[in-house]
Amino acid sequence: MSVKNAMTADFLRSAYGGESMAHMRYLVWGEAAEKEGFPNIARLFKAVAYAEWVHAKNHFKVLKDQVGDYTVPAGAVFGFTDIVENLQGAINGELHEIDQMYPVYLETAKFQEEKDAEKSFHYAVEAEKHHAELFKKAQGLAKEKKDMDNNPFYVCPVCGFTVEGEAPEKCPICGVKKDIFEKF
After folding, report:
1. What is the tens place of the pLDDT at every residue in 129-161?
2. At a CB cut-off of 8 Å and minimum separation 6, what does 122 contact?
3. Rubredoxin-like domain: from which residue to which, for each copy (predicted)?
4. What global pTM score does this model have?
């Protein structure tokens, strides 16, 4: 299905840009966490970077028939300091998506009856809630100069849901079975 409404298409492009930048930012911050002696927080950043790639891919696929060059305005967190501040940047970015960006994009897609965009935005906003909580947990530990436990992180390759420890039998957001989750 092609996107019919220009506003929803613009929101998809903006979300794609924001998720793409989050993907790269989390890889950079993960590398920094590793160097600062926080290998498990580094893995969290890498896992969530993958989840953000999933979101960007989903938005991009919905735009499959929107061929051409576009200027893409997208919000982004910048800064590269220490582990605690980098985690705060991650928390701020996730909360912006949860509280500001995706609710507007999702309601617009619903209003404009853009079902594929609605699903893509829904997947992203629900996954971001889990990302924010994981980053808050990591930041609390980092403030005490502690790393996260050496538990695996699992990411759903369909919606980007991310969990520490064990993958659920089926994804609570999109319903896929645990055997396709990516392990970090």
Report:
1. 999 999 999 999 999 999 999 999 999 999 999
2. 106, 173
3. 151-184
4. 0.93
- CA 88 → CA 76, 84, 151, distances in Å? 13, 6, 22
Phi and psi at residue 9, in whole multiples of 5°? Answer: -60, -45
Any bridge partners for residue 153, and if so which? 164
Instruction: Decide if 66 contacts 7 (C-beta within 8 A).
Output: no
Reported as a single tens digit per residue, the pLDDT across 8-53 is 999 999 999 999 999 999 999 999 999 999 999 999 999 999 999 9
Spell out the domains of the chain, with CATH numbers in brackets: 6-147 (1.20.1260.10)
Element housing 118 (H / E): helix 115-143
Give the separation between CA 68 and CA 93, rounded to whole angstroms: 28
Rounded to 5°, the CA angle 113-2-129 comes to: 60
- Residues 6 or more apart whose CB falls under 8 angstroms from that of 39 comprise 33, 147
Q: Are 139 and 84 in contact (CB under 8 A)?
A: yes
| Helix (H) or strand (E) run with residue 162 in it | strand 162-164
CA distance 120 to 169: 22
- Beginning with the edge strand found earlier in the chain, give each strand of the sheet holding 182-183 in spatial order: 162-164, 153-155, 182-183
Residue with tokens 């520490």: 164
